[in-house]
Amino acid sequence: MSVTANPKLLLSKTEEWASWFSTFKRNAETTDVWKFVNPGPFAEDQMVPTLEKPSEVTYDGEVARLAARGDGQETIKDLNEAQLKVFVIRQGEYKTKMTQYLSDRKSYSDLMTWVHQTVDLALIKFLPETANLRDIIIKLKELVGVTEAYKIELARLAYRKALHTNRRTSPVDWYNQWELAYREGEKLEIFEVEGDIAIGDFLEAVKTFDLEWAKRYKDDLRKDQRATGKSSMTLLEVGKQFLDAARDNVRDKPSSGAFSTTNPSSSSEKGHDCPCGLAKNRHFWAPTDCTALHVAVNGIANSTRPVREDRMKKAKAAMTASKWKTLIEAVKAAKPASGGADSSWPPPMAQMVIDQSTPEGRQLLAFSTMPQAHPLRDSTLLDNCASTHVVNNRDLLVDVHPASASDVVLVGDTALQVVCRGKRIMRNAFNGPGGRNTRDLVLNNVAFVPGFHTNLISGNELRALGYWSCTLDDTLRFGTMASNKIMMNMSSKSNNGSVHWRNDVLMDDGVKNRDG
What we know:
This is Retrovirus-related Pol polyprotein from transposon TNT 1-94-like beta-barrel domain-containing protein. By secondary structure, this protein is an alpha+beta fold. It has four domains: about 15-40 and about 50-145, no CATH class; about 150-245, no CATH class; about 270-335, no CATH class; about 380-515, no CATH class.
């Protein structure tokens, strides 16, 4: 199996080491040469395997070997029958070793080529001039590698994130992400996954899904602590118990709704009726707080939560009914004050939070045939099909936090690994009451994907908040078709080179150069 270089994967700085080294190790293990390139560390008395050509076994060589061994014969010119049998066996072993060596050497050479194709030229010049790939990896690790302390800190951050990312997701999906973070934390022996405190933290987190189950297991934990001083179960065992309960609950429920946290018999009595059309037992918030209804009535969201277009349309169609008169008046009264400015302007900034999940079995690899950087690499595209905001330059982000191992950006039928997420502030990108380019555009939870062909703003997320692109004049607008404000002027790029940007809008250089 050969190793194919991925032009989108480039090692140039510390933030890219984890993803790059993970791919390197996977390639080495797949081709069965990891034992020859593993950078260690190794114990002092540990034998370190090296790729060496086996010594050839010939007839003359076997005669010389026996003569040098000094087995009592004065001179050996020919092999006797017993010695000839041994020679035939040794020659067969040599041929087997040689076949394996040639295969390993080919894989080793391919991996060496991959390294030189995916390491920045600025780093290549510091690498040792040697054919020993292990020495090269050790040097790369010294230059940009992640220390054990940093790996532990990343694992701690990832575990805490997985533990508390328990909103707007199913319990089974949440558990799968949690276990991935747990396994990594266990491997690095972080204290967040050890002991009864870790179990207590887990039970607190799953209260969101099943309050009664969490309370019951917390009572059991306390009983164990009183009786023996510690829990009778490990954290992973408690987690598996929760997963079984979650699956049983989903299987036993007549509908495919959210995981119940209350008595099933009383679930239909909870919630609120709302013009947005969401089922009463799923509308846990008051109708006066419904973002879809606020957009339908006031043309402006009352929060940064994403709004589904079908809910907004249902709210618009239903709000004229007399039964909703009092509610509609309350929502109108709650419209944010403008402080004297034109109230048709949107709030000061747009903030979007994307909870990107990973389809099971999705391979976290992507390959490209582009020989050079994309011509729009440093531009920012408003992509009407994108589900998340993306940057290819970490310097565009602030408030950065590591992404989980399962955090990916889907491109066609491939998945690109997200290294980290953060906030992107585009200084003076928006028009406002004060004039052209007087407001910042703030994008939250932006994915950093090294080597991504360009930078993206998700048009889907902007539309959910009332922003839409007008391709007639290449503008981004806020409001309705009849009454709206121009938020940004952009330039259109279509049929650019070999890439077709259908219905996408490229921000002009002025906006690009004002990125904070």
